[in-house]
Write a structure and sequence with these properties.
Layout lengths: L1 E7 L3 H12 L4 E4 L14 E4 L1 H9 L7 E3 L1 E6 L5 E5 L9 E5 H12 L3 E2 L4 E7 L2 E6 L4 E9 L6 H5 L4 E17 L7 E7 L2 E7 L7 E9 L8 H13 L6 E3 L4 E10 L3 E2 L2 E3 L5 E2 L7 H22 L6 H29 L4 H16 L1 H11 L6
Parallel strand pairs: 1-2, 1-11, 2-8, 5-13, 11-19
Antiparallel strand pairs: 3-7, 4-7, 5-6, 9-10, 10-11, 12-15, 12-16, 12-17, 13-14, 14-15, 17-20, 18-19
């Protein structure tokens, strides 16, 4: 089988690329290793979409149920430091939109339709003239001009293509779960609390009956040596919730996963390109992982579509390098910024805590700095 573009990974980003290219007249095949009827009963994970990402989805005809966040409060539990980010500061209705991961993933796969080959995985990649010969683990062979690796943190495409990854372990574990709030808390307000018990984030979820929120809690592993995750959450959740005048009740299983980051030294070589989590992963502190992936995908699609319309080879190094030059430095900046926040707010040093509280309050008073930060986080500042 021959296809202009082959995409490894049928997740949200891989499907976005397929749909975006198809609307521009470029067909692609998605190779997805999981079965079509994979059990998705564990529906706890949420994602936060910035306004730019939300608009990209609307542009390809994807409408989703999402809870709009008009205000984000950042607080230090051990002090008085705080920042408020307001949507009105940048002239928008919402700073972000929170939706269920599974709901968006299902919607994207439905839109991609028959373009997805489920229960299949790439075994080897070789070059034959201007095309790529790709062997699948079911012994089927396909050809393409461009192979896009959108297959997640342990990308097989990146490994088979010998891309070099720089990895770092945060020595933290993330807990995520759903919680209802018994207070009269405004559903459009998200909160983030920095404390000795880790980084605690609370994001609203659209629900017709309950005041429901998603919790993502990043905890230093040293605090978990002698305590079960359920006991840890039960022990500290009310203490943290009281900081934002909330009364939280756990409404789901508590899912946990280790936190680490990685970044590829390069994103492309002749005929092969890597995007999203396959190219980089980031601390969930600011919820920017999926948004960086969408930004990658959109820039890549623009370069491929432009080359196609001009009659240039879409898999050529010169075409793909334009994408890398536009995205790799931006992603590196975001990764380093998040590391700075993790190091700053993860310190237990009393002097660092004092400076942290003073810094938060000072930052909150400087409007142009807040607007600059919000614009970057919202995706409004693009190359």
């Amino acid at each position: 089988m021959n296809y202009p573009v082959i995409i490894s990974g049928g997740g949200i980003i891989g499907c976005y690329i397929n749909i975006r290219l198809k609307q521009a007249g470029i067909e692609s095949l998605i190779i997805e290793k999981t079965p079509k009827d994979k059990d998705k009963s564990e529906n706890v994970r949420t994602i936060s979409l910035n306004p730019n990402t939300y608009q990209l989805l609307m542009d390809i005809g994807i409408s989703i149920d999402a809870s709009g966040v008009s205000q984000i409060r950042v607080l230090d539990k051990e002090g008085s430091g705080k920042i408020k980010f307001l949507a009105e500061e940048i002239g928008t209705d919402f700073l972000s939109y929170v939706t269920m991961f599974n709901a968006l993933s299902d919607r994207m796969q439905e839109k991609a339709g028959d373009s997805i080959m489920f229960s299949s995985e790439i075994k080897s990649i070789s070059r034959s003239g201007e095309s790529l010969d790709i062997a699948l683990k079911n012994n089927e062979e396909i050809k393409g001009l461009l192979l896009i690796g959108s297959d997640g943190r342990m990308s097989s495409v990146a490994k088979l293509s010998n891309f070099i990854s720089r990895d770092y372990n945060y020595d933290q574990t993330a807990f995520t779960f759903l919680a209802s709030d018994g207070s009269s808390r405004d559903k459009s307000i998200a909160s983030q609390i920095f404390s000795d018990q880790g980084i605690f984030a609370l994001m609203p979820i659209m629900h017709k009956d309950k005041n429901l929120f998603s919790v993502v809690w990043s905890v230093p592993n040293k605090l978990l040596n002698n305590i079960d995750k359920d006991d840890f959450v039960s022990k500290y959740i009310n203490e943290l919730a009281s900081k934002i005048d909330s009364e939280l009740n756990i409404e789901s299983d508590i899912i946990q996963f280790p936190l680490s980051k990685h970044h590829l030294d390069s994103y492309t070589n002749e005929g092969v390109v890597i995007v999203g989590d396959a190219a980089h992963s980031i601390h969930p502190l600011a919820g920017q992982g999926i948004n960086l992936g969408f930004a990658d995908a959109e820039v890549l699609c623009k370069e491929v579509i432009s080359a196609h319309r001009k009659g240039f080879p879409i898999g050529s190094y010169s075409v793909l390098k334009k994408y890398e030059l536009k995205r790799r430095s931006m992603n590196e900046l975001m990764l380093k910024t998040m590391d700075g926040f993790v190091n700053l707010f993860g310190s237990n040093n009393i002097y660092v805590k004092l400076l942290r509280n003073l810094g938060l309050n000072l930052f909150n008073k400087i409007s142009f700095m807040k607007v600059f930060f919000i614009n970057h986080a919202s995706g409004s500042h693009k190359l």
